[in-house]
Amino acid sequence: MASTDPIRRGRRPGDSGARDAILDAARTRFAGEGFRSATVRAIAGDAGVDPALVMHYFGTKQALFVAAMEFPLDPAQVVPRLLGPGIDGLGERLVRFLLTVIDDLGDANPMLGLVRSAVGHPDAARMMREFLGEAILDRLAQAIHEAIDTDRPRLRADLCASQVVGVLVARQILALPELAAADRETLVAAYGPTIQRYLTGSLDP
Hints:
CATH class of the largest domain: Mainly Alpha
Strand content: under 5%
Helix content: over 70%
CATH topology of the largest domain: Tetracycline Repressor, domain 2
Low-confidence stretches: 1-14
Distance between the termini: 67 Å
Oligomer: single chain
Shape: globular
Largest sheet: none
Mean pLDDT: 83
């Protein structure tokens, strides 16, 4: 027998918790399905609101993902900012930016929790790939490919990801003493040229 309950549309009258309900639903969907497969419509349905209300609060699915996972950076803002000064020095800017975020947040950085979880949980690994790889590094590599016709932009993005995740694990999780104690600019000088080569240099043997 069909339900006679009315379908809830738009803003729930008097419900100041609608935004929190959307975030809770989004966390569950993103954790279970990943960023790409989770839809705004499904998240809205789980939260009992109209999809338009989700967009009213967050604007885009990417912004909703950032808010739901409590990430400290929004790829929609990060990528243009890194590319703004040009391709030269991009590797150092990327490393400096990520280290600044990591250092400022410390153990409260949700990216660290996601890295820890990614080792044993496929869902966490998928979210890490989609957020760090596809949303940030793939976009950087593709923009450089379009600007200077580099080859294999996806491989370049993956090489950068391996370096970035490696720094996170070695410095923040394993806490290798000398690496953890090194100042930010020392690490920028050490890792920046490598990231730059991954993005713009030759990958030929």
